[in-house]
Design a protein that fits this description.
The protein has 205 residues and is an alpha+beta fold. It is built from ten helices and four strands; from the N terminus they run E-H-E-H-E-E-H-H-H-H-H-H-H-H. Helix 1 links the parallel strand 1 and strand 2. The chain is globular and about 45 Å long. It binds glutathione. The site of glutathione has 11 residues, from helix 3.
Length: 205
């Protein structure tokens, strides 16, 4: 494969973070282009769907974070070959995408509107997502979401739970996961200790 350039906002989270981690674990060389909000607004209209992440491969710019997560996950050996296990992995990836999609409109709100929207999310959809993920993890044996091994599903959940618990999302209770799905907190801690994940963050500092 030729040159890979991944473009996304300059923080260790969000839609590009699982892709960055998978690329790093796979030992796949890539340019990690981290955008300021000003840089994004300058390049936004030039992206295929006015959104990031984008990945440029051999001069062509592609979109859709889960397509990237799956593709680079396959190259890195972090995606199941078995169709059923792949389905279990995919369901998890798409649950988190639904959660990210629902958060989007709240990022533009302020004050009481923001508070009400975040409370509705926490009490409604996010609670449902956490309960479903918790059930899936239990059914899969409690350690990993698919294939009884570390896959991109584990990375995707890890990145989301880390953000939910960070306190960085105003009016989103940072203890929501701990209260509803403590199994996911233990899972997050296990993923954080994975040697590939540790090496990725060590390389970032
Ligand atoms: N379906 C797309 C969604 C991409 C998306 O909405 N990205 C957000 C950032 S996480 C974005 O670029 N928003 C910019 C905007 O709405 O102006 C994907 O999976 O990559």
């Amino acid at each position: 494969m030729g040159r890979i350039k991944l473009s996304y906002f300059d923080f260790d989270g969000g839609r590009a973070e699982p892709i960055r981690i998978a690329l790093s674990i796979g030992g796949i060389e890539f340019e990690d282009r981290r955008l300021s909000f000003t840089e994004f607004s300058e390049m936004r209209a030039g992206t295929p769907l006015n959104a990031v992440p984008t990945v440029e491969i051999d001069g062509v710019v592609y979109t859709q974070c889960n397509a990237m997560t799956r593709y680079f996950g396959k190259l890195a050996g972090l995606y199941p070959a078995d169709p059923w296990q792949a389905f279990l992995c995919d369901e998890v990836l798409e649950i988190i995408e639904d959660a990210a999609h629902a958060l989007g409109p709240t990022l533009r709100l302020q004050g009481d509107e923001l508070k009400a929207a975040r409370k509705a999310l926490a009490d409604g959809m996010y609670t449902r997502c956490l309960r479903t993920l918790d059930k899936r993890l239990e059914a899969a044996g409690g350690q990993y979401f698919a294939d009884r091994r570390f896959t991109v599903a584990d990375i995707k959940v890890y990145v989301w739970i880390k953000r939910l618990r960070s306190g960085g999302l105003d009016h989103m209770p940072s203890d929501l996961t701990d209260a509803i799905a403590p199994r996911l907190v233990r899972h997050m801690e296990r993923v954080a200790a994975d040697p590939g994940v540790v090496a990725y963050y060590a390389g970032r500092s």
